[in-house]
Specification:
The protein has 6 helices and 10 strands, in the order E-E-E-H-E-H-E-H-E-E-E-H-E-H-E-H. The protein is of the alpha/beta class. Helix 5 links the parallel strand 9 (about 150-155) and strand 10.
Length: about 230
């Protein structure tokens, strides 16, 4: 089955086309002015490149947040509209879980700039089960919740960890003295991860009708982040 996946949750967006969980194509799309004006033309280019029509798509998927409120709505609206017109299901994938799937290690902490002095983040284990739930939280507060565990932090781009970034790395290491942490940058467009996760959820019967797919804004901060060891 073919899955078309979108990520429009930040200006570093992407599209992907996958067949039975294998990504056929994933393309990064920069849209500093927003995706609303270009998303359908980018979808059209991707499908034409592979000789695929909308009738061939079995499921539509989108990164549903957290991220830019406007970007989240654009991506979800696009896939919901296409799914409704063509009578196909939708899978809404957490941006953070998708990002975590692009990292390695027992524990992965995806990090996205949430503005307002906070980051969107969580901790997942190597089965992508949440160990710390998704939250919008101040970076130092999040680091204090990690209890010295070995963590791989992952960002869509490296600049989030640079000086002045939302998750400034040197300050984090210096203040915590933790040598078990490492940082990585996503090695492929997030839409590729969204497509793979959507394929798995579709196989488990977790896809939704278009009208039921919803955004995952994760705006409320959680001041008491708690580690929960997976069962």
């Amino acid at each position: 089955m073919l899955v078309l996946a979108l990520d429009t949750t930040s200006r570093h967006g992407s599209l992907a086309l996958a067949r039975n969980g294998t990504v056929l194509d994933a393309v990064a799309v920069e849209a500093p002015g927003g995706f609303a004006q270009i998303v359908f033309q980018e979808i059209d280019k991707l499908l034409k490149r592979h000789g695929v029509s909308f009738a061939n798509i079995g499921c539509y998927a989108a990164a549903a947040g957290p991220g830019s409120f406007t970007g989240i709505r654009v991506g979800l609206t696009a896939v919901k509209a296409l799914a409704e017109v063509h009578g196909k299901p939708v899978v809404a994938v957490s941006t953070l879980q998708g990002l975590a799937s692009l990292a390695q290690g027992r524990y992965r902490a995806p990090v996205i700039d949430a503005r307002r002095g906070e980051v969107f983040t969580a901790v997942y284990d190597d089965q992508l089960r949440p160990v710390i739930q998704e939250a919008a939280v101040a970076w130092p507060v999040f680091l204090q919740s990690l209890a010295g565990r070995e963590i791989t932090f992952i960002g869509q781009t490296a600049d989030i960890f640079e000086q002045g970034g939302a998750a400034e790395w040197n300050a984090a290491r210096d203040s915590n003295g933790n040598s078990n942490w490492r940082r990585v940058e996503a090695g492929e467009p997030l839409a590729a991860a969204v497509a793979r996760l959507a394929t798995k959820r579709l196989a488990r019967g977790e896809a939704l009708p278009a009208e039921a797919a919803d955004a995952n804004y994760v705006r409320r901060s959680d001041a008491e982040l708690k580690w929960k060891d997976p069962a």
